[in-house]
Design goal:
heterodimer; A: 255 residues; 9 strands; globular; B: alpha+beta
Chain lengths: 255, 131
C-alpha cells in the first residue's frame, strides 16, 4: 500500500510543481516570433572590455545615503581610513558579484539580441544577465536574485533597463555602499556619441530607504571585434577558500 | 588643487577592489622577492593560473614556491600561452610574497630562459594598453 501510494504522491507533487509553467507565456518565448525587428537594432557586436575610470575607480558622483545605510557607509570609510582591511562578506571568492557589480568586472562583456530579449554575458565566472524587452507584465514580487529582474525597452539606439529584486546583501560598487530590497537600478546603455567603438552605461540608483537622492554613475567599454569570450570556471582551481573569520586563505599544495 | 587631490585619494579608497576573485591583502604588494628555480607545475586554470617553482637551497634541497597569477583570460592579452612554462624550465620569477612568511606569492614578473619577460597584470585595464 505504502509502495503504491508513493508514486501517486510523487505525481501529485510533480503536477503541483509544474503548475506555474502553464501560466501565460511571455512574448519572447512564444511559439512564433519575428526576427525582423532585430535588423533595426544598433550594432553592438564584438566584445567590450572595461575602460579605466568610472565606478571601478571610485570616480564620479558620490552616493548620498540616509538612515542606517549612511551609518554603515560612514563607518566603513572610517575603518578604511584607519588602515583596516575590509573583508568581502561572502562565503566563497567564486560567488559572483550580482548587480550592479557584474557590469564592472575587470573582464569583458558581450551582448546577444534575440526577439524580445537582450542577453549580457560577462566573461568572469561566465555570468549571464537577461533583460526582457518583450513588453511582458513584470512578475509580481519576484524572488531576489544576484542579477535581479530586468525589464528593458529601446528608445532609439539606447537600451533602457529597469532592474529590481536584487539581493540586498551585495552592495553598490563601493565599500560600505549597501541597499534595501526597494533598490531600483536604471540603466541607459548606448554607444558613445561620435565614437561607435565605445559603449557607455549610465546608471541611476534609486532606493527610498537607503539613498537620500538618486545616485549616478557611468561605466565605459571599448569594443574588440577580433576577440571572443574565453571560458572561466571559477571552481576549477580555486585555492582561496574563505574561513570562518571571513579571511581568504591561500592553499600552497602544488597539485 | 589640494581639494582635488584629496577627492582623488578618497575616490581611490572607497572603490571596491577591481578584482573579480579575491583581494591582494594576503600579499605584501610593496615587496618583490626574486626567485631562480625550475618549473614543477604550471596550471593554465581559473580563477588563477598557477606555478609551482623548485628553488634550490645551498644544501642541495629545494624550496617549493606556490605562485598564483591572474586568470588565463587576462594572461592571453599579455603575451602568455598555456605552453609558456613547462616542467623543467629554468626561470627567474619575481613575486609579491605572502604576508604569512610561507613560500608563496603573487607573480609580478617572470623572465624566461630566452630573456623574454612577461607580467601578470590583474585586470584588463592594463592589458588594454597592450592591445
Amino acid at each position: 500500500m505504502r509502495n503504491r501510494s508513493a508514486p501517486a504522491l510523487g505525481l501529485a507533487g510533480l503536477l503541483a510543481f509544474a503548475a506555474p509553467a502553464f501560466a501565460e507565456v511571455p512574448p519572447a518565448a512564444a511559439e512564433h516570433v519575428s526576427y525582423a525587428a532585430l535588423d533595426k537594432l544598433p550594432d553592438w557586436r564584438g566584445i567590450w572590455t572595461p575602460l579605466p575610470g568610472g565606478p571601478r575607480s571610485g570616480a564620479g558622483e558620490a552616493p548620498v545615503f540616509k538612515g542606517k545605510y549612511l551609518a554603515v557607509y560612514e563607518d566603513t570609510l572610517r575603518r578604511i581610513r584607519a588602515g583596516e582591511t575590509i573583508k568581502a562578506e561572502r562565503a566563497s571568492n567564486c560567488t559572483p558579484p550580482g548587480m550592479p557589480g557584474i557590469m564592472i568586472q575587470p573582464y569583458d562583456i558581450e551582448f546577444l539580441f534575440t526577439p524580445g530579449r537582450v542577453t549580457i554575458n560577462q566573461e568572469a565566472y561566465m555570468q549571464v544577465r537577461r533583460i526582457f524587452t518583450d513588453g511582458r507584465t513584470p512578475v509580481e514580487d519576484p524572488d531576489p536574485t544576484y542579477n535581479g529582474y530586468s525589464i528593458g525597452h529601446w528608445e532609439g539606439d539606447t537600451l533602457v533597463v529597469r532592474t529590481t529584486a536584487v539581493k540586498s546583501d551585495l552592495g553598490l560598487f563601493r565599500f560600505g555602499a549597501t541597499h534595501s530590497d526597494k533598490l531600483v537600478i536604471n540603466e541607459r546603455i548606448h554607444l558613445k556619441p561620435g565614437d561607435p567603438n565605445v559603449l557607455q552605461i549610465d546608471f541611476t540608483f534609486e532606493d527610498p530607504e537607503a539613498l537620500a537622492q538618486p545616485w549616478h554613475q557611468t561605466a565605459s567599454f571599448e569594443r574588440h571585434r577580433d576577440l571572443d569570450q574565453i571560458e572561466f570556471v571559477c571552481a576549477e582551481n580555486d585555492r582561496n577558500p574563505v574561513d570562518a573569520n571571513g579571511d581568504t586563505a591561500f592553499i600552497e599544495t602544488s597539485n | 588643487m589640494k581639494v582635488r587631490l584629496l577627492a582623488a585619494l578618497t575616490a581611490a579608497i572607497v572603490a571596491a577592489p577591481a578584482v573579480a576573485h579575491h583581494s591582494f591583502a594576503m600579499f605584501d604588494m610593496n615587496k618583490v622577492v626574486t626567485l631562480k628555480g625550475a618549473v614543477e607545475v604550471f596550471k593554465w586554470s581559473n580563477p588563477h593560473a598557477w606555478l609551482s617553482l623548485a628553488v634550490p637551497n645551498a644544501d642541495g634541497t629545494a624550496e617549493h614556491w606556490a605562485i598564483e597569477l591572474t586568470s588565463p583570460n587576462n594572461l592571453v592579452h599579455q603575451g602568455w600561452k598555456r605552453t609558456t612554462l613547462k616542467p623543467g624550465d629554468k626561470v627567474t620569477v619575481m613575486v609579491h610574497p605572502l604576508n604569512s612568511g610561507k613560500a608563496g606569492g603573487s607573480l609580478y614578473k617572470v623572465k624566461l630562459a630566452d630573456g623574454t619577460e612577461l607580467g601578470s597584470a590583474t585586470s584588463q585595464d592594463s592589458s588594454n594598453n597592450a592591445k
